[in-house]
């Protein structure tokens, strides 16, 4: 994502417009005549799954696609995204962000953890947007 696109996404959010997070970059790029390019989003899970298991859970369709019965996007199967750094029900975005900032995040990160293990260092990834549920007060 370019700096210009990130700025447009920020402005769009401040104006109170809504786009699903998965659609915002490409939609705004097209609306503002930017040249969009698709790149896979690096996604991390808080558990170890083999490639075969991920394939079965997220591409259960006849042609190994995400559609069809058992789609991970349905209400009954959306829980497959729990523990993912990117996705509707990911949940760990806040923890990763807090630990990276040096805050305690359910037992990792924080002053004591950093004295024993060093600072939290994360690979390149996008975190799914998260809401402040009153745990912390973030300021810009």
Automatic annotation (TrEMBL):
Residues 57-90 are annotated as: Disordered. InterPro entries: DUF3405 (IPR021822). Residues 67-81 have a biased composition (Gly residues). It comes from the Eukaryota. Residues 57-66 have a biased composition (Basic and acidic residues). It holds the Pfam family DUF3405. This is Uncharacterized protein. The lineage of its organism: Eukaryota, Fungi, Dikarya, Ascomycota, Pezizomycotina.
């Amino acid at each position: 994502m370019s700096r210009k696109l990130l700025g447009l996404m920020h402005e769009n959010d401040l104006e109170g417009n809504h786009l699903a997070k998965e659609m915002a970059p490409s939609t705004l790029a097209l609306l503002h005549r930017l040249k969009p390019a698709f790149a896979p989003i690096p996604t991390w899970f808080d558990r170890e799954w083999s490639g075969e298991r991920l394939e079965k859970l997220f591409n259960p369709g006849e042609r190994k696609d995400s559609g069809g019965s058992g789609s991970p996007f349905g209400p009954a199967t959306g829980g497959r995204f729990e523990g993912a750094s990117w996705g509707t029900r990911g949940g760990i975005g806040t923890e990763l962000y807090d630990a990276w900032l040096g805050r305690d995040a359910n037992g990792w990160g924080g002053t004591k953890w950093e004295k024993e293990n060093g600072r939290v260092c994360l690979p390149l990834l996008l975190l799914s947007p998260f809401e402040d549920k009153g745990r912390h007060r973030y300021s810009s």
